[in-house]
């Protein structure tokens, strides 16, 4: 209504402006979907904080093409049908222009067909599942982030490069799709790199487990060379406290896929392989070389009291991708871009962000590098940082468009690891 | 007079989504959950609280998803299958459960539904785990439609379906089998002495209530286009009981009124107080439970009768 009134007013003033011309709107409506309550908020709130800060900064700089962003936050904890119903309500509002959604893979998969149906550009900020674009095309859905395949192949590659003798692996992942997918991908890649690899324990504790003592005993009894885990949030913190106390980290090599998100909160020993599911680490060489990133990190620390963990960087990068798409769309269209213009601009978008860059390829999946390293002490901070990093180029560890991801992993060979950058090479 | 009230409710229900299309989605959800709550309400008449009926709701939804995956794409077939599968499961599970009363009945239902929930989350290759399964847009009597056509079909077709089902359930409740239900609660032994087989009465009620929940679940699956194991989680079951009590278990309309109230409060709480929406929903429920012992529909009904005098 407001936009209509603005158009009308402009038409009256200018006299000759046709009523159909796309004038600049008062603001860009952006729906931001993340968990702000419940256990998943441990991951969702850093995302929301980063969105708030990023949008504040963009608006302070005059917005996108002179138009400020007006965010509407939606809590994903209300359940699948609630999230879909909110998405639909927002999409019906002509002042809503783009959705940044969502955190949970299940929600993403429920929202994607709705985005297509309502012709609403949806840019995912997390949605790691490789199933999102598997056998499905979504005209209006874009993922300028990485997915489970490159993420967990990267850990297998890093481990194989640093510890080629490691063959006995134990897995402890959360008991839902993300945990099971990761176990399958990691095991598949490990076996491709070294046929002698065997899984000696595979445990899936349920989300929100308070005591991991049974799991820890079983892992300890299996005497693995490597323990792989993609636990996260409060579960990961609990697991680390209990496992360290029982010496689990001394006897095996440990990989914590989402370990960066708890570096500031727990006492992780040195030498644990951790990563950020993508390249979104605020202290990576690329990030530190970027003045904009440093300013963002400082502002984040100032506002929220801790440094931005990788979900925050992911969200910030995603909003930058939306901004870049808008700028591309503004250049391409005469007048203010419509939702469809924005959709077209997202196609094949290439953008530099706070921690590296992302390319959206023709299946709308993002190509994002993977940063993996090990925990090491530092004098500059009172928590460990990531050292001995490798930055794996996205094109090498992401399956080609249209290829079945698990079959692709099966084609990998031991030579694949040696063709990748060595651990410690990313300085 | 009561007919006028029902007609007014139906008319309002049919007209409002025309003004705000997003409400069409919420209203269809109201119908789907209302059907399941009606199933719960039938058992409540016999004093049996099922905190596990979401299992049948989810079963109906997954039946639709499974058919959609296996290229049986007709909406009518899918809904019939959802109803039959749930009815069959209800009959089988009911065989065991109708022997229990009170807290044991409630807990056993809960147990069965949580086993089912766990199966849905863990049988990864069949159910897609927690990521769930996609439900494609169905055909209607063989005609290929798009989602924009499906939604009004689900809303208005669903409304018609609810009216037909509601009338049938109303007849059932007035039949000897239906009238026996409250008698089970008041004096089960007397019923046996009168020569009425209580297990048979309860088994038929349980099967019917499971079928209703399955039908609701089927509509839910078609509407949302995606099913997840959370549909079978105990909180969903709790919600169904709550909705039934909220609306009032006296008649057929109550559960739908309750379902409407809960969905609307939730939707608007999410819109206007995004950060504390669960608090608002909880407070809304407390108000109804404390001050409206006969449920929302009882309140409406009383108001209408008073004005008629």
From TrEMBL, chain A:
Record domain Leucine-binding protein: where: 28-365
Keyword Lipid metabolism tagged: no
Gene3D superfamilies xrefs: 3.40.50.2300
Species for this entry: Amorphus orientalis
Keyword Repeat: no
Signal peptide range: 1-21
Annotated family: Belongs to the leucine-binding protein family.
Keywords: Amino-acid transport, Signal, Transport
Protein name listed in UniProt: Branched-chain amino acid transport system substrate-binding protein
InterPro entries recorded: BCAA_transport, Leu-bd, Peripla_BP_I
CDD domains documented for this protein: PBP1_As_SBP-like
SUPFAM superfamilies assigned to the protein according to its UniProt record, in alphabetical order: Periplasmic binding protein-like I
GO biological process: amino acid transport
Source domain of life: Bacteria
One Pfam family here: Peripla_BP_6
UniProtKB/TrEMBL annotation, chain B:
Keywords carried by this UniProt record: Cell membrane, Membrane, Transmembrane, Transmembrane helix
Pfam families xrefs: BPD_transp_2
Primary localization: membrane
Membrane topology: Multi-pass membrane protein
GO cellular component, one term: plasma membrane
GO MF entries: branched-chain amino acid transmembrane transporter activity
Alphabetical list of InterPro entries matching this protein: ABC_transp_permease (IPR001851), LivM-like (IPR043428)
Localization terms from the record: Cell membrane
Membrane spanning residue stretches: 42-64, 76-97, 103-120, 153-173, 203-228, 240-265, 277-300
Protein name from the UniProt record: Branched-chain amino acid transport system permease protein
């Amino acid at each position: 209504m407001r936009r209509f009134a603005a158009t009308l007013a402009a038409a009256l003033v200018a006299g000759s402006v046709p009523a159909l011309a796309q004038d600049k709107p008062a603001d860009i409506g952006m729906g931001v979907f993340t968990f702000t309550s419940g256990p998943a908020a441990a991951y969702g709130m850093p995302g929301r904080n980063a969105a708030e800060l990023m949008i504040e900064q963009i608006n302070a700089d005059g917005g996108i093409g002179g138009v400020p962003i007006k965010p509407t936050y939606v809590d994903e904890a209300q359940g699948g049908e609630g999230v879909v119903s909110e998405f639909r309500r927002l999409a019906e509002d002509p002042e809503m222009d783009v959705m940044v959604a969502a955190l949970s893979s299940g929600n993403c998969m429920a929202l994607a067909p709705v985005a297509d149906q309502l012709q609403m550009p949806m840019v995912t900020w997390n949605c790691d599942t490789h199933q999102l674009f598997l056998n499905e095309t979504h005209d209006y859905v874009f993922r300028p982030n990485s997915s489970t395949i490159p993420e967990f192949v990267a850990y297998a590659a890093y481990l194989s490069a640093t510890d080629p003798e490691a063959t006995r692996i134990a897995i402890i992942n959360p008991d839902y799709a993300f945990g099971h997918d990761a176990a399958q991908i990691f095991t598949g890649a490990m076996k491709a790199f070294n046929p002698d690899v065997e899984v000696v324990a595979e445990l899936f504790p349920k989300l929100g487990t308070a005591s991991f003592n049974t799991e820890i005993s079983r892992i300890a009894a299996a005497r693995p060379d490597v323990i792989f885990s993609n636990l996260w949030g409060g579960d990961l913190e609990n697991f680390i406290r209990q496992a360290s106390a029982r010496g689990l980290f001394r006897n095996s090599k440990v990989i914590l896929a989402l370990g960066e998100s708890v570096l500031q909160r727990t006492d992780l020993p040195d030498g644990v392989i951790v990563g950020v599911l993508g390249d979104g680490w605020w202290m990576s060489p690329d990030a530190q070389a970027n003045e904009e990133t440093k300013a963002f990190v400082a502002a984040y620390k100032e506002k929220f009291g801790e440094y931005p963990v990788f979900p925050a960087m992911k969200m910030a990068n995603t909003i930058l991708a939306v901004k870049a798409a808008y700028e591309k769309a503004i250049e391409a269209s005469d007048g203010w871009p419509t939702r469809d213009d924005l959709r077209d601009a997202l196609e094949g978008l290439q953008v530099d962000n706070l921690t590296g860059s992302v390319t959206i390829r023709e299946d709308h999946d993002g190509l994002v590098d993977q940063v993996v390293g090990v925990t090491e002490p530092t004098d500059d901070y009172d928590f460990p940082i990531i050292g001995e990093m490798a930055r794996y180029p996205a094109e090498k560890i992401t399956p080609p468009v249209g290829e079945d991801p698990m079959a692709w992993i099966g084609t990998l060979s031991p030579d694949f690891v040696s063709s990748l950058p060595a651990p410690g090479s990313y300085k | 007079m009561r007919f006028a009230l029902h007609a007014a409710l139906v008319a309002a229900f049919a007209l409002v989504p025309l003004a705000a299309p997003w409400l069409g989605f919420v209203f269809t959800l109201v119908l789907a959950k209302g059907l399941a709550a009606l199933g719960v309400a039938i058992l409540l008449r016999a004093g049996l609280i099922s905190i596990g009926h979401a299992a049948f709701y989810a079963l109906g939804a997954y039946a639709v998803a499974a058919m959609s995956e296996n290229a049986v794409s007709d909406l009518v077939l899918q809904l019939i299958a959802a109803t039959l599968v749930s009815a069959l499961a209800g009959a089988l599970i009911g065989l065991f459960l109708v022997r229990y009363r009170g807290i044991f009945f409630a807990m056993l239902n809960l147990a069965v539904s949580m086993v089912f929930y766990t199966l849905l989350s863990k049988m990864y290759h069949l159910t897609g785990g927690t990521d769930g399964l996609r439900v494609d847009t169905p055909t209607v009597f063989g005609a290929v439609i798009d989602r924009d056509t499906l939604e009004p079909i689900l809303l208005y077709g669903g409304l018609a379906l609810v009216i037909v089902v509601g009338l049938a359930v109303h007849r059932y409740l007035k039949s000897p089998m239906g009238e026996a239900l409250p008698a089970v609660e008041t004096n089960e032994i007397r019923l046996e002495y009168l020569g009425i087989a209580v297990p048979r009465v309860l088994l038929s009620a349980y099967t019917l209530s499971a079928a209703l929940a399955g039908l609701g679940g089927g509509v839910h699956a078609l509407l949302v286009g995606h099913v997840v194991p959370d549909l079978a989680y105990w909180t969903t079951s709790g919600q169904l009981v709550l909705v039934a009590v909220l609306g009032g278990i006296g008649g057929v309309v109550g559960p739908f009124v309750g379902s409407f109230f809960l969905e609307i409060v939730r939707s608007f709480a999410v819109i206007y107080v995004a950060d504390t929406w669960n608090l608002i929903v909880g407070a809304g429920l407390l108000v109804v439970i404390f001050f409206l012992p006969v449920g929302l529909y009882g309140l409406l009904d009383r108001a209408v009768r008073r004005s008629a005098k």
